[in-house]
Amino acid sequence: MPDTFLSQFGQTRSDIKARHALLTPESHEWITQPGWSDTAFAFLISPDLGAKFAMALVSCDQAITAPSAAPGIARFVFCTKGALNLSTGDRLGVEGFAFVPPDSDITLSAEAGARFVLFEWRFLPRGDIPEAVCGSVADIKGSALRGDERLTVQKMLPADAAFDFEFNIMSFEPGASLAYVETHFMEHGLLMLDGGGVYRLDTDWYPVTAGDAIWMGPHVPQWFGALGRTPSRYLICKNYNRSPLAPR
Fold this sequence. Notes:
One of its GO terms (molecular function) is ureidoglycine aminohydrolase activity. This is (S)-ureidoglycine aminohydrolase. This protein is mainly β. The chain has two domains: 28-136, Jelly Rolls (Sandwich); 138-239, Jelly Rolls (Sandwich). Helices cover 2% and strands 48% of the residues. It has one helix at residues 3-8, and strands at residues 15-16, 20-23, 31-33, 36-45, 53-60, 64-65, 73-81, 84-86, 91-92, 96-100, 108-110, 115-122, 133-136, 143-145, 148-155, 165-172, 188-194, 196-201, 204-209, 213-216, 222-227, 232-239. It has an eight-stranded antiparallel sheet with strand order 1-2-20-17-22-16-15-14, with no helix packed on it. The chain has a seven-stranded antiparallel sheet with strand order 3-4-5-12-7-10-13, with no helix packed on it. Strand 3 and strand 4 (36-45) form a beta hairpin. The protein starts with a helix and ends in a 9-residue tail after the last strand.
């Protein structure tokens, strides 16, 4: 049944719980933000939900230059359509990404028609703050997760304790799944890129497909199994390299 049909009768697959949330496209609310001209935002995850970070889908009708992040706030962007440019001279095409450290003078611009995912969080410094990082998913070799060749992970940031967040692409062959139900103090933000399957969050089981987003709070039991005839992929972040007693 089409999502537009469900919406006109007040239904949605989105489900907001105290410790997790499924955010599906038919319930997105697109808004403007101060300082961003000709740009629409769908904020899927925010501190008001209980998260320690914000995650938004961003759509640019015209070419724009983004305002700087607030003091102490780090950014990670992932391009899903068109292209983004950094003042460093780096150009990000589809599935290009960039980490911009807090209080940086690096500026981000988007070409007309670009769409991207924007993550922002209050950075937890540990010694020297790392430099900006740019790259493309296509250039990252995947590695098998826990020896399962049907499930690969591509890590977009260096394995360096100076980074307090991790951003990965997880790829599943049809029928592949996480090895066990995970429970940990780190939280996640996730966007389905391709394919679909079933996600377990707490005691709930959700069918998910491309375009769906998920917030997983600390200590939420979580598991994913890929279904269908084509591979499934998702973009996922977690607050990493942090002690459970680190400042919120």
